[in-house]
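Lecture notes, continued. The same structure-token format from the folding unit now serves as the input rather than the output. Read the line below as a description of shape only.
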């Protein structure tokens, strides 16, 4: 199983993760220090079976890139895995105060656990 991450804008292409994200991941034994930002591209529809968006804006950006209905159907909002049908956005950790990165980590960790359960 291949897992990757990409943004829908090109603002930070080639940059590493925010140091607070790196620190939070390290607290949980995950090393993301070598990751580099990349932009989502149409070819990703062929590379991945499921494409998760963090919020409805990113969801719409990705769906609008799709040429086929099959590709549109691959796109889902990630927190619907843990809160079905809620279309809840992952909050931007930069505006969450001292706990913003912890909150986002916990939300995504739980959603990813649900994804893994479905794949097992």
């Amino acid at each position: 199983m291949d897992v990757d991450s990409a943004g829908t804008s090109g603002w930070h292409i080639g940059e590493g993760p925010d140091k607070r994200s790196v620190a939070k991941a390290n607290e949980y034994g995950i090393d993301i220090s070598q990751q580099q930002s990349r932009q989502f591209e149409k070819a990703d529809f062929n590379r991945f079976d499921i494409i998760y968006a963090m919020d409805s804006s990113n969801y719409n950006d990705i769906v609008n890139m799709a040429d086929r209905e099959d590709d549109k159907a691959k796109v889902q909002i990630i927190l619907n895995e843990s809160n079905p049908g809620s279309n809840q956005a992952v909050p931007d950790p930069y505006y969450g105060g001292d706990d913003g990165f912890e909150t986002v980590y916990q939300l995504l960790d739980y959603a990813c656990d649900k994804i893994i359960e479905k794949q097992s």
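Point for the exam: The chain has one domain: 19-119.
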